[in-house]
Amino acid sequence: MESACYVQSHPFRGHLLGTDPYRSPAAAHPPKPAQDRSEPPRAQQQQQQPCRIISDPCTGRSYSKGRLLGKGGFARCYEMTEVSTNKLYAVKVIPHSRVAKPHQREKIVNEIDLHKELHHKHVVKFSHHFEDSENIYIFLELCSRKSLAHIWKARHTLLEPEVRYYMKQIISGLKYLHLRNILHRDLKLGNFFISESMELKVGDFGLAARLEPLEQRKKTICGTPNYLAPEVLYRQGHGPESDVWSLGCVMYTLLCGSPPFETSDLKETYRCIKQVKYTLPACLSSSARHLIVGILKRSPGERLTLDQILDHEFFTKGYTPDKLPPSSCVMTPDLHPPNPARSLFAKVAKSLFGKNKSKTKKSSEEKDDISKLVTGLVKTSICRQLSYKTVDGNEIAPVSGHALTGSSSPVETLTEEASGKSVSRSIRGSLVGSSDAFEDGVSASGVMETALEVLKDCLSSMPTVEGKPTSLAIHERFVWVSKWVDYSNKYGFGYQLSNRSIGVLFNNGTHMALPANRRNVHYNLTNSRHFVFPAASVPEQLQGQMNILNYFASYMERNLMKGGDLPCPDEEGRPPLLLLQWVKTEHALLMLFNNGTLQVNFYNDHTKLVLSKPQDSYLLTYINRDRNSQTFLLSSLLETGCSLEMFHRLKYTLKLLQQKAES
Ligand code: 1D1
């Protein structure tokens, strides 16, 4: 709930925001060509086709209105692109009609006046503002990873190092504000925006105010009730200490999962705040508890200051990462203070596959370090050209710049006994050779394009028949998805193959798989690099994802019907199939694999189509509603024809692929 808070008002003098009083509707809406009589009247037309280009009447700059980001206060917020520069902004669009009353306009003036003076790394950048005949536009820094509220929604609780990471940035921004005698007065998760590079920016100055002497402070209640300080509820005014109180509530919420004074009844919440009545869960570390207690003091004067918070052992003794991975927006990151083992892993990864492979010679000490760690890897192979589609639709391009060349050379198996020297050689071997472990040059779009062509050819000339065409015996290497779980709102997409191997395509684009024998874990980083670890000793950094993989595996085992698993030839030594991309429509789930296989599951009758090319020829498998499967040589089907039910599903698949290719 947001309660009103009106700041000292300046009388409204006609035009409000710009320095130029000229507000020309013509400038805002460039003249249109003469209308044909058959066209609807302009007002009606505008309603049907909302204006997507907005022009600043003063500068003449044009902006193209993009997606709606959300609503806040009086505003609807849109992504906008400056047409001439392609620069992106998050823009608050406030209709004049919504701020018709003087005190409403004053709120906007106040927000703009305060915000435009602020320049700090951890404060949302105010770019510029203007108005046209319909709206006021406030152009702000776009923060593509939304806000801490979104992260909290996906994660519920964060790790202490993450909380330190975010809090340090909030405190840095807040110290800047307080030094300038500006109170934010509405610190909450939704007002901490997160940039593309995971930097936090304090934003929304809609309730901000300049600090007044105690006796002159406004006594109105501002901010979000759960984070209101007792003195604000007692109408003693809002001081810098009240912002500190809210910060304590933010810290509590991120560590414990819910706000400290949350109840189902607002009056009860206010009572708890006034009495400072909250519980500290047992899972909190003692330093976190101690700090929360130091912040959530009833008397503002007793509360820790921002500097004292930073000096608290919660910050000084605990590890704070320099950066958080974007995946931490949706899943628990593997965070560890720098330690020798971790830097070894990083060094190895960098030395094997690093983008900026150093040309300088490594010291012998460093070389030894690297080889020590590599003995822990069972096998290292490199997958050249994979790309993943993450659930939010980002295609992650394969890393260029270290594409491998040369003829294929077998990837050596590195064992615990391998000596430093031989390990280094074997790594070099795998670096210069192409890995036989993975299909080379396979990308989701490549698989999709090929499947599209094959199906197009097939459907253009294949007859349909009444009876069943002759099928082939199932090919021995034929593998398909027998179970799947879409848990992409939290972690990713898990699947079990008919050969009992398990895979997860995580939301962050990485992939982890466990073959049927469960001996080794195959891990593909976003940048297409393939690692293999013994399942019993995956590196600490991957333990979180390993737990999720195990969780998926046991969930599918326990909760899903047997999907017709097949006894499969020994897959020893071959990496499991890798899901490159999945697409869900209203009717079907489409999956693309790195061996070129395409599988489509139709939800309503559980029928499935699988197009595969295990050797030289394409096979088409149809699993009907009774779960009987038939596999056909595609070339034979072209002559004998296929059943109508198969034909319809093939057509649907083709349409889906065409749509994807077009988009
Ligand atoms: O102040 C905001 N900023 C900086 C912001 C930045 N990026 C507000 C208002 C423009 N918001 C949201 C929009 C809806 C409610 C608050 C922002 N959103 C975003 C953003 C980028 C991509 C998604 N959201």
Query: What is the percentage of strand-forming residues?
Result: 15-25%
- Helix and strand content put the structural class at alpha+beta
- CATH fold category name of the largest domain: Arylsulfatase, C-terminal domain
Widest beta sheet: strand line-up: 11-19-18-17-16-15-14
Structure description:
It is built from 18 helices and 25 strands. With 663 residues, it is an alpha+beta fold. It starts with 24 loop residues before the first helix and ends with a helix. The protein has four domains: 37-140, Phosphorylase Kinase, domain 1, CATH 3.30.200.20; 149-329, Transferase(Phosphotransferase), domain 1, CATH 1.10.510.10; 340-432, no CATH class; 444-662, Arylsulfatase, C-terminal domain. Residues 1-49, 348-441 and 565-570 have low confidence and may be disordered. A seven-stranded antiparallel β-sheet has the order 11-19-18-17-16-15-14, with helices on one face. Ligand 1D1 binds next to strand 2 and strand 4.
